[in-house]
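Before a colleague's protein record goes any further, I have to sign it off. My question to you is simply how this chain folds and whether the tokens agree. I do not need a full report, just your reasoning and any doubts. This is what I was given:
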Amino acid sequence: MKLINRINLTNLILSIIIISIGSVAIYNIYRSNLEKARDEGLIFMMNDQIERMSERERQNPPDNNRQGNPPPRRDRGNLSILTNPETQYVKFTDTLIHHPPTNQLQPYRKLSSVKEVNGKYYKAELYLVAIEGDTVLKTVIYSMTALFIIMIMLTIGVNYVISKNTFKPFYKTLEEIKNYNLTNAERLNLSKSSIKEFSELNEQIDRLTKYVRKEYENVKEFSENASHEYKTPVAIIKSKLELLIQNEKLTEEQFKLIDSCFKSIDKLKKLNDGLTLLIKIENNEFKLSESINIKSEVNEIINYFQEMAELKEIKIKSSVSETEIKANKILFEILLSNLISNAIRYNKKGGLIEIFTTENGLTISNTSEFKKLDSEKIFNRFYKENYNEDSVGLGLSISKKICELFGFEIKYSYENSNHNFTISF
């Protein structure tokens, strides 16, 4: 998730939490105040009814022929004078009462109370319709909800615009770093920022890239010099050995020692060439813009190794389609040469090599007397099996590096006594 989206998401979540808590609090406060106003209205209604009833009692003393006192209006409840004293109390409840005009139950606030006034005890059950207050409460809730949604949308929009402008220098720096290449001598083009943290970040990145570039140049120069300087003494040693081997007085033991020296020099040369190639691959010193025909390249490599295969009576079958890929021609030739030469070198006499294209790749399969290789280690540098002492252990490592450079994938498998190397394009 992008940084700007993470910030906006965090702001959105916090806004929703804060607004939700605020909405619940406002709702409870408003509802509490509304119920308090209803309760106070019922108390006022009860006191007013008691006062009016007392006034009527004073003006019209009761006689034996009159039954009780006139109650309040039917929709407001009833009020009566108790003949016997009772404990005074006040109780508020919510209830539903049938409303004849609409033939529906409507919510009411109910007051149940016993109150003593001037030595008389009055019992009241009064009602106050609650639907009007609830309607107002719902209207307020709906309005607040709509207002909060608008606020959230505006907050998200404003935060996104502000954050996008604020983080623009950061994203530009990030893009520059992505496109930075050590093989290119150009410096990073980091834009200036009025934000202190971004400005410091650019300064540190610029300082770091300068240091890395300098170290890269030093390593590159060292490897080139070492590779070049190594060749001279090796060539001298080899020429001296060639002169020495022409001496007719050499014994068989001496001849074997000189032959061992030749093998060691060849191995040292292969090691140097392999390491130098790996360094160049890792430093991206090869261009990747060439179009290569796989069939043509495979046939060329097969022709090159044909004599070597015939010496071991190995048959090579090729069924490669006319497939075009984008890669560096030199490196792709090295990749094929490594795999095909290995297929010949570690094959059995009279064996078979099959080279064929699959839906998305190329497979090189060979018979062998050797068992399955360790698929977890064979692509590591300097790794070699016990039977392969003459190898420098770099061929498959180089092959894997070449595949990684092209964006390919190389895998090893062992099926039906065949060793298979598959390159997926």
Observations:
- The CA atoms of residues 105 and 384 lie 90 Å apart.
- Residues 64-71 have pLDDT under 50 and may be disordered.
- Residues 3-60+69-162 form one domain.
- The first helix runs from residue 3 to 59.
